[in-house]
Amino acid sequence: MLKIRGSFWSNIKIIIMSPLFVLNSYNVLAEEYIFDESLLLGSRYNSLALKKVSQVDIPSGKYQVDLFINDQFVSREILFFHEHDKETLPCINDTLWLNKVGVLSDYLEPVEFCDLGVHVRGATYNFNAQKLRLNIAVPQAYLNRKPRGYTSPETWNTGETALFTNYYGNYYHSENSQGSRDSAYVGLNSGFNYGLWRVRNHSSVRHSDLGSDFTSFRTYANRAIPKFYSELGVGQLSTRSIGFGSLAFTGIQLHTDNRMLPISQRGFAPVVRGIAQTTAKVVIKQDGKDIYTTTVAAGPFVVDDLFPTSYQGDLLVEVHEANGQVSSFIVPFSAVPGSMRSGRAQYALSLGKNRNTGNDDYFADFVYEIGLSNSLTLNSGIRVADGYQALSAGSVINTPYGALGGTAVYSHAKIDGGFYGEKLYTGWRAGLNYSRAFSSGTAITLAGYKYSTEGYRELTDVFQQRYYFDNNYGYGFSSASYLQKTEMSLNMTQQLGDAGSLSLSATKRQYRNGRGDDDSYNLSYYKQIGIVNLGLNYSRMYTSKELDGTTVAAKSYKNDVFGLSLSLPLGSGHQVISSNYTHTDKGSSNFNIGLSGTLENDPTFSYGISTSYQGGDGYESNSFSASASKRTNIANLRANYSQGHNYRQISASANGAVVLHKDGVILGQSVGETFAIIEAADAQGAKVRNNWGSELNSKGYGLMSSLVPYRSNRVVLDSGSIDDNVELLESQQVVIPSAGAVVRLKYDTRKGLPVLFSTKLATGEIVPLGAEILGDQDENIGTVGQAGLAYVRLAEQTGKLRLVWGEGRKQHCQFNYDLTGYATDVRLLRLPAVCSTIDNR
């Protein structure tokens, strides 16, 4: 057996990569590359093989490819590649052109062969055979234009049947002067998927010295209705009302699911309209930053796919004409909650029984919102129950001076008080919101005011008050919502450039029945000084306290708190020192300093240590705490220890997921609402990129813990500690899952001993460059490189290989191989092979 030296690998890489370099040079340097056959006169290199190498061609046949249109992923398709005029061309039928690519029917031409440039005028393509990626460039004017981030409902992967549970287990032990205590807790978030239905349950198990109990908090099921961009839910749900208070109920709900919309259609952003005199570049800026650039043809243009931004400020639209002229105009941009894009509408319908009381409190509500233009959004709603009706109406107006939103709600309620008699309550509540960003860097993100009359009632208050009467509690029920008279709020931020940023928030609530006001004011300052992050905070709160169930204190209690925080990254940033200091007007202080980080060579392991001091009012205490956590393939583990004056606490926790699928059970890290099962035969140890600590198990299965529904997700595998005898034939896939789906991603692998054959014909001549290597089943398993070197991965110990380099009767040969007796743990086995030509294929 030949020994393989380190330098040999370098030679092998050069030999194998040389033809690839030539192929890549073809793509980059020339539109047409022709290999000069005269350079190889007298050799066995044939023109057909050279032609294939020169044009980076693939044999005719069906291939599963990732289809991209203008560099945007569309779908994964099985396409037929047909050889025509000495080229191998991808064939796309009219249905695919119209439904997947989105070409307008007026621009489709009849063709007798697969020529993209003829079938659609001006279309060109680029095919990457290694990645099986086909990118077709089509003039934008020929396309049925889709907003950025659009994915066709036909491409949404609904996933497969699966049962899973996320668990969080915690053990807690504490000791103090009164003794010790032990407790355990397990939280379970479980799910079952069948077709489009997703069943979910949230529950927990608790155990302590007092006993054990199991609690199921919520069970529900939902399914997508793609045709209407909606979702249907049944079970224990919550209302989705813009004008009414949230209500937990058991019943049915149908609502718009904005996650199905492209990211460029979610949230609020104005529609930009303009006119270009020539073919022009349109640049849209906000706060001096480019947020959108596109090229438009002469005439009217519309930009309706701006991404919603996290900050506000008017948009500057620049039109750069082909003749060098530049024109510009301003589009106002401010938003408050409830702002919707022009032409966009959403709704929510809820029917069911209230979950917070034991009575048969059934209700129904419906809300509807629509964006009529950039400057106007309307909303309305109705909520009804036995003896209760409420109506809401509102609007949002966007102006050059900011966005103003207003909502009014009217309620009419009858409450049967039994011995106390029936009472009628009617009233209304009104609210205003305002938002604006200024060029000075000041932003009023939300300024609000609400006022409600004494007779206004939320439905939850009505249900609770009826419950009190039914259980002979009389008028003992009181609610902050209907006792509250007014509420005012303000949130402002000020950017100070290099000096940092300043933020202010304030809230004031006033009540009836003599209860004192609840006020809160908060002022924060943040600045980065070099690598040090500095934060200062001052808050003041006035809080009224309830003395018993029916009486409230007329006095509000004041509390002032000053805070200082510092953080400093160390070295390469894997460690951070942070400290916090707070002081109250009552004289108490708290100081904490700690070190946290991850191991530089293992980001899955993190740790933290801290010490703190508490003092004031004649009391002082010191404490110490330490924690460590590790993300493993099957769970996330964490341990904590803390000790202070007269106490000690120890806790340990583990969280992860158990997934039951058609092929067995997978243990992994906790999964999100939407996730993927990864399957790659024999690829134990392959790592899932962007999912720290996750790798494939001994059966070749693993989990991608979280996917974004209705958007393109790229899932990549790294070889990791995969066995040397296993090769990943593909390392990445793109999937567009529906919400809550458990999708399966199967990656092709090849297992076998890696062998490099030095092939020669029986005449002593070298096998031609570019010859195809066919296995026992005539499957293509490789290509002959320079000097007759043929790299293959063989799963069988014995067999035969056939080499084909042309269509002639003598342009193919075969040889038998026998690997019996050779070590199976070598990284590469090099063997000579004599290939005998045969007359019949």
UniProtKB/TrEMBL annotation:
It is found in: Cell outer membrane. Keywords: Cell outer membrane, Membrane, Signal, Transmembrane, Transmembrane beta strand, Transport. The keyword Oxidoreductase does not apply. InterPro entries: Fimb_usher, FimD_plug_dom, PapC-like_C, PapC-like_C_sf, PapC_N, PapC_N_sf. GO terms for cellular component: cell outer membrane. Residues 756-820 form the PapC-like C-terminal domain. Signal peptide: none annotated. This is Fimbrial biogenesis outer membrane usher protein.
